[in-house]
Amino acid sequence: MTPPASEDAAPAAILRPAGPRDAEELSVLLSELGYPSAPEAVVRRISACADVPGLSIVVATMDERIVGVVAVHCVPTLISDAALGRITALVVADEMRGRGIGRQLVEEAEAFARKQGCERMELTSGDHRPGAHAFYVRLGYAVEARRFIKHGLGER
């Protein structure tokens, strides 16, 4: 799953599927991303995602510590014969940014999406994250649409 690091590059993180045992460390990363989550909630979410076709959650580790995570969902759509890949979560520990871990996670998500028949990948990023926006542009992503959200659907 993990490509070898070149001699002149920082060592590559080791990538592997996320599991319930990762909940404690993932709850910290999700909080950094702006989605505070108790470890128990993370266990439930990972378990709910475990057998969903077209869904992958991968963690990046260095020295046996989780330093990043990416979640990607691939879904068929009405507008195209090809499925759509969507990165729904991506975060690298603040102190580990700038070492190529985010790029490694995005490349892993894109490879998974290609295997699922996706021809397009999308993601969203809050307006308050200009550093993340510059990162996505460097990876070849472009701003193409607005995002509209309606909260509270489960409250009725």
UniProtKB/TrEMBL annotation:
Coiled coil: none annotated. This is GNAT family N-acetyltransferase. It comes from Luteolibacter soli. Keywords: Acyltransferase, Transferase. Residues 13-156 form the N-acetyltransferase domain. PANTHER family: AMINOALKYLPHOSPHONATE N-ACETYLTRANSFERASE-RELATED (PTHR43877:SF2), AMINOALKYLPHOSPHONATE N-ACETYLTRANSFERASE-RELATED-RELATED (PTHR43877). Pfam families: Acetyltransf_1.
